[in-house]
Design goal:
By secondary structure, the chain is an alpha/beta fold. It has one domain: 3-Layer(aba) Sandwich (Rossmann fold). It is 22% helix and 29% strand. Strands 4-3-2-5-6-7 form a 6-stranded mixed β-sheet, sandwiched between helices. It starts with a strand and ends with a strand. The structure holds inosinic acid (IMP) and magnesium ion (MG).
Amino acid sequence: MEKLEVMISENQLRERLKELGQNISSDYGEDSNLLLVSILKGSVVFLADLMRCIDLPLSIDFMVASSYGSGTESRGNVKIIKDLDVNISDYDILIVEDILDSGYTLSKIIEILKTRNPRSLRVCALLDKPDRRVTPVQLDYNGFVIEDKFIVGYGLDYDEKYRNLPYIGVLAR
Ligand code: IMP
Ligand code: MG
């Protein structure tokens, strides 16, 4: 596999996830009923690592939203392709997303989940590219704010490739 310019190293990811996990654990506490909602596919690696940094009982579930296809630009018409398996009314929902870019995907998913009246709803995104925002989204937890470069690795893809890179790299286009 070709080497890419490293934007965020494995060590940086590990350290930041530890902090996020500690913050989440102390914010929610033992009385919470935490359900991590992972948006496939990009957030699987982040979810798998983050959940092991959270020291609370929790459940996980998955949603699939229509996304970029094989290109690198999001479009406004986000659709839910796979919905959650569970009724969320008793859960404290923490959406776990790889990256907040235009905001289309997260704002749509937040809108949908809000209508189901969960106990609480918060959002965690590993990466935030504020320069790209079209629709405002409030993050409760964020790993890194990054500049407007197309990145891959740690779950993120270009044309379905590079998801298995253990670090976040910049794809020269
Ligand atoms: P948004 O709807 O534009 O906010 O896009 C969110 C989704 O686009 C993310 O969940 C990613 O799957 C994808 N995405 C956004 N920026 C990048 C990037 O730089 N590299 C890879 N995927 C990206
Ligand atoms: Mg994604």
